[in-house]
């Protein structure tokens, strides 16, 4: 599955006004969305970029190719998504009533409570919209955290909450939302909290209260040029219809990078460091020659 995306921002003061406009444009009442998102990171560390260029010999190349056949060359953060309702949050006195477990007794037609989500880095195409590969796997039994740890193997990083409203206009899914988090250091724990806090205990990640408006079209067959063009045109038509209300555009794609970054070991010099030191040495030598 691929997604075509555009984004905009809505101030807290204009939230009510934009909600009414979206309800009119989509000809529907908004659907309340509450989610818990738990972030996981692969256990192994990513390789140094371009490290394969410094490896010589046919045997080394062959070994590298065999390794890549079983191990992905890029590492990505992944998400565990829990669908919530107001009743799932703890009470004002801090007592919670929701545990980290999958609902194995859901009936046909109901959506599973838990899912594992992967989102790729948006591409750099010139379509005027972002396109990225995404994959969501429903978890219908067992412990979701155990599943995420074993599937990587991964380790827990942190968690946050999403609250907002969803609209649907044709094939365009509009999600007006903002991010909440629980105060305090959350990434020192070995696993997600078994019980989620009271909704009133959560705080805005962006203190200004600004909402994110995400407009999305899902494309099943990304290689079908006609299907892709149809999706792009529908998303751009929605972009045009929202002009004067919310400006939809492309944010910096690097800010949406889901890859795990390589961290240089402490004390190791990069090629840029060596080049800079050489330039500084040459400059000092030239200065000394001029003095004499």
UniProtKB/TrEMBL annotation:
<dbReference type="Pfam" id="PF09637">
    <property type="entry name" value="Med18"/>
</dbReference>
<feature type="compositionally biased region" description="Low complexity">
    <location>
        <begin position="58"/>
        <end position="67"/>
    </location>
</feature>
<dbReference type="InterPro" id="IPR019095">
    <property type="entry name" value="Mediator_Med18"/>
</dbReference>
<keyword id="KW-0804">Transcription</keyword>
<dbReference type="GO" id="GO:0070847">
    <property type="term" value="C:core mediator complex"/>
</dbReference>
<dbReference type="GO" id="GO:0016592">
    <property type="term" value="C:mediator complex"/>
</dbReference>
<dbReference type="GO" id="GO:0006369">
    <property type="term" value="P:termination of RNA polymerase II transcription"/>
</dbReference>
<keyword id="KW-0805">Transcription regulation</keyword>
<comment type="subunit">
    <text>Component of the Mediator complex.</text>
</comment>
<keyword id="KW-0010">Activator</keyword>
<feature type="region of interest" description="Disordered">
    <location>
        <begin position="43"/>
        <end position="67"/>
    </location>
</feature>
<protein>
    <recommendedName>
        <fullName>Mediator of RNA polymerase II transcription subunit 18</fullName>
    </recommendedName>
</protein>
<dbReference type="GO" id="GO:0006357">
    <property type="term" value="P:regulation of transcription by RNA polymerase II"/>
</dbReference>
<comment type="similarity">
    <text>Belongs to the Mediator complex subunit 18 family.</text>
</comment>
<keyword id="KW-0539">Nucleus</keyword>
<comment type="function">
    <text>Component of the Mediator complex, a coactivator involved in the regulated transcription of nearly all RNA polymerase II-dependent genes. Mediator functions as a bridge to convey information from gene-specific regulatory proteins to the basal RNA polymerase II transcription machinery. Mediator is recruited to promoters by direct interactions with regulatory proteins and serves as a scaffold for the assembly of a functional preinitiation complex with RNA polymerase II and the general transcription factors.</text>
</comment>
<dbReference type="GO" id="GO:0003712">
    <property type="term" value="F:transcription coregulator activity"/>
</dbReference>
